[in-house]
């Protein structure tokens, strides 16, 4: 049935600053830097921009937002930024509503509108302290709840996660231990002498072995 329709546009309701899930983190709505991240975002570019804003004192709060394929990259941006600043962090996960429109290719059919819920993430990072009454506040230089150690439920820091990742990459690129080692020179010389003796023996063979007898009747 879907062969009778073609994919149309996706319509997403844009989120405003007042709709961000951080009303309990800020008593009054402060001015903050809002960074939108998607799958094609250049991490280095957005990190450099956010650092310049914080260094100039234009903002003291940065909020990273991403959804769908941009969720992982959004987390990466937050992890990289807090290596350079003592930031308080609050992470909220929710869903964004997207309408998919399918247009009919035959007369008599109506347009189909499908509604999908896409996971999204919003990360608030502040240079100023956040009230301890706020749920899931991560203080500077503390372990977060995004990366977890393997084999248990103990959260690990971003530095520990990156170390394990580099270690795993180096291990996977390590050469195989069962590769054949080159033979010692003494064995190579012995093999060379053996080959030379075999060649000399073949050259000293009797000529009669290679000459066929002549039949006298054919003379």
From TrEMBL:
<feature type="compositionally biased region" description="Basic residues">
    <location>
        <begin position="173"/>
        <end position="183"/>
    </location>
</feature>
<dbReference type="InterPro" id="IPR002775">
    <property type="entry name" value="DNA/RNA-bd_Alba-like"/>
</dbReference>
<feature type="domain" description="DNA/RNA-binding protein Alba-like">
    <location>
        <begin position="34"/>
        <end position="95"/>
    </location>
</feature>
<dbReference type="GO" id="GO:0003723">
    <property type="term" value="F:RNA binding"/>
</dbReference>
<dbReference type="Pfam" id="PF01918">
    <property type="entry name" value="Alba"/>
</dbReference>
<dbReference type="GO" id="GO:0001682">
    <property type="term" value="P:tRNA 5'-leader removal"/>
</dbReference>
<protein>
    <submittedName>
        <fullName>Uncharacterized conserved protein</fullName>
    </submittedName>
</protein>
<dbReference type="InterPro" id="IPR036882">
    <property type="entry name" value="Alba-like_dom_sf"/>
</dbReference>
<feature type="compositionally biased region" description="Low complexity">
    <location>
        <begin position="193"/>
        <end position="210"/>
    </location>
</feature>
<keyword id="KW-0539">Nucleus</keyword>
<feature type="compositionally biased region" description="Polar residues">
    <location>
        <begin position="150"/>
        <end position="160"/>
    </location>
</feature>
<dbReference type="GO" id="GO:0005634">
    <property type="term" value="C:nucleus"/>
</dbReference>
<comment type="similarity">
    <text>Belongs to the histone-like Alba family.</text>
</comment>
<feature type="compositionally biased region" description="Basic and acidic residues">
    <location>
        <begin position="161"/>
        <end position="171"/>
    </location>
</feature>
<dbReference type="GO" id="GO:0000172">
    <property type="term" value="C:ribonuclease MRP complex"/>
</dbReference>
<feature type="region of interest" description="Disordered">
    <location>
        <begin position="141"/>
        <end position="219"/>
    </location>
</feature>
<dbReference type="InterPro" id="IPR051958">
    <property type="entry name" value="Alba-like_NAB"/>
</dbReference>
